[in-house]
Protein 1
Amino acid sequence: MRQDGNEPAQRQRQRRFCILCLWFGALTHLSRDSRRVAWAGVLIVPLFWLLDTIIDVYLFGLGEAFHHGLFEMEPVELYMRILVSVLVVVFGLYAAVMLDRAERAGHALRESNAQLEKLKSELEHLVVADPLTGTYNRRKFHEVLDRAVSNATRHDHRFALLMIDVDHFKSINDTYGHQVGDEVLRSVCERIRGAVRSADQLFRVGGEEFCLLANVAGGEDIGPLAEKLRKVVADRSFPVVGNVTVSVGIANFREGDTQESIYARADDAMYEAKRKGRNCVVSSTV
């Protein structure tokens, strides 16, 4: 008989234990702010009981003493308090779950936006980058050159344009194949990028032709930089093909220059370097 009498009490304890496990299990999957909202719903319950007791005892005189109104209430009052308490706790948990979902959705949205920004940046880079060498392509070259000419004309920001052409590149392709030729172009670009200043910009404008846009401060002579680029290519041999050289033409910005005029002078200077035997630097005097 004792065992039968204890069964309902045991079941109630088991039920309460399961409810607590579900409660804490739900909290562990929520964010910190959401857990605070859920616990706020729990903490409101004793405050509600205290406030309701104060109103009943001191305002309506429904109890002989405060502890009577708090612990020795009518069954209907007890059930009403329990019902309101459960509703408050459930609402707090519901609000916490909604807040957690909103935070997760916001986090996912921020991650998606960051991914889109990254993809946008990569796409913009692909539009202006040469896929073989990683330098800027001809489209970007004309954009930057146009801006440089405008700044030089309006604000006297002087610059020089260096035309760099790999000597005998066709014979490299014919003798060793295009794959080796591509590797030569990549290596030439790496050497040039390692030798120029951070403010200078390198572009691939043709098959084996490159342009370097170099800032010129005051009356600076850009010739030593061009000679440095020539030497950094010629002084070390390349795998498979051996020695490779470049011819360099220089055109300094002059008053009244346009994109076409400064490019043409740099190109003419580069071909003059070819006529002089290649592997040399020629500055435009026109």
Protein 2
Amino acid sequence: MTTTNGQITTDAQTTKPAAKKPKSKSSKKPAIKPTWTLTECALAYLESLKVARKSESTVNAYAADLDLATEVLGTETPIAQITLADVERFNASEPVLRTKSGRDKAMPTIERSRRVLRLALVFAEQQGALESAPIAEKPKRAKKDVPLSQREVVGNDDAKLYPTADPSDPAQITYASTGEPVTE
């Protein structure tokens, strides 16, 4: 076969590639579950943070908190064997509550350490490595039916805070520098 510009086309140029068969979509999730240790779970979670483009300082802080978790719970502990009691033991452990020098850590730091382990376990659950993450239910806050601006102040009785002056005792204004009464 010859084209208008005189070139000869070959069969490879004229035939179209075969259409790809659509893959069948199965409704079942893969039966293979990863059997992660706590260290592998921590590494996978940190990698997911990097993929999500979290800042380097966030990833480093979370890595330090996960190091605490592996120190307390064991590096080779299978995450499927971590129980709620283990998580509570981690939450109350010395490395979470105190610095290496023995001082108490700030509460936001303690809460971050606890949150990071919880997030890593939830991540493992989402990846199929756990049936359910061993985390305690947070107590739900009570709903406030009345807006703050419309609530009655409790415990601030003006009569107790500012007792009324005795009518027989006139107010005296004095100069702070001399202590003499002000006269008009």
Protein 3
Amino acid sequence: MYSGMRCFFVFVLLFLIASCGASTKTKKDLSVEEHFQLAYKAAERGNLDEAFSEYQKVLKLDPNHTRAHLNLGIVYGRQGKWDQEVAQYKKALRIDPQFAEAYFQLGVAYGEMGKQKEALAQYEKALQINPNYVEAYTNLGNIYFRQGKMEDALSAYQKAIDLKPDYARGYFNLGSLHRQQGRLDEAIAFFKKAIEIDPNYALPHYHLAFIYFERGEFKLAIEHADLAGKLGVVVDPKFLERLKPYRS
């Protein structure tokens, strides 16, 4: 009887050990998708070293994983390693020449490198593949704006909000363009629309503060400057000094 019970307990113990071994998965056993998710979540947390390591593991298992190349490029970009960033986007595009997001991110990288002509070309390629790419229209408009091509910028910004009517940033961009050209009533309307869509959007408040100050509407200028500050904008100290006499 004793011998039988001992055999039974030995059998149970071996079964439990085997079960634990089967259910425990080491990082060496992870799939491509599991490594990708680990990388993605690490990047979200700001742990770029871990993200880099996990994306490298993805690409070791699957060298043609276009999104791993794309996201690894974004990691390089966040580290200011623009040459390596560009190289990853180009690798993704060699694998999939129709990868619109890779063209877009390549445009972002070139823009950060000060290569506006190259950036513009990449945004245009992204839009050829995906004509509904709102962010590409936005960045294209920003380049035209900086180049002083206001009609082209206006067209790009308008296209963005046509595609996405609740796009607060699009209305902000239109407000900035109209303010630049001295059309302040239009600028105010667009900034207010951006705030209506996103009440926590600080930049429209900041621009409204300057417009109202220039118009002599100091109470409104103070209100929007204070809101901009509360929402995270670092308000120019010189502007705050100019507002001081008008505070009750």
Protein 4
Amino acid sequence: MSALAPRPAPFPGLRRVAVAILVGLALLAAPRPAKAAATRLTAQQTYELGERFAKRGVYTKALEQFNRVRTYFRDDPYALKAELAIADLHYKKSEWDEARLAYEDFLRAHPRYIDLDLVVYRLGMTLYEKSPAVAAKDQTWTKQAVNTWAGFTSRFPTSTHTADVQKFMGKASNRLGRKEILIARFYDRREAGPAVEGRTSRFLANYPDSPDRPEAMRLLAVAYAREDKDPTVAIEALKAADPKAVGAAERAVKRAAARHARQVAADKAQAERQVKH
């Protein structure tokens, strides 16, 4: 080999590998603003992606997208839509407590929202759906649903949800009325006239459209008889509401009056015996 010829570098393959690694690291470290801008979604795009997931029933991913909008785009109009969409997702999943809290938070934060009637309607429905259908059970949630919908027609005279609110509010009111009647029956079996009178009088004043009004009038008439009061007003009201029920009510009134008379006589005789002794 000539002394002037270049000597081959040791380990040429290793040198090429090292150069390739350095080039790769440099490429990774280089900024890529164009690609980052292309992959980031806007508030609208993120919201619409959540809507697509929701329509497909993929609620977990839909909730993730709506939360992203609410968290990262707080000043964007779509953040407001995302808040309501989160509440609606819980509603669709029958998660009544989560939906109720979300709707309540929305109402407090946005009392002038353009579609506030929808929010009030849905909030009432979460309470209605959470309440037990059996009137004998605790009806606290039913009462809250009625309170939520109170004055809905006057507040939102042009709402498209008025018919549904009236429908479910009627059912809720009837359920509450039935609860009062069940309690009145309990006192009636114990012949507690004043308690029955109190319950049925409040019932008749508060539930004018209840299907249980005829029974309330019958119970009230019997309660009057037990208290030595004139049951005529209750019987006449029953005649107007349900003429077929009058005969049975009058017989019950006579039995109650006779039992009351016997009890009064027995109490009087006992008092006289005590005086003699």
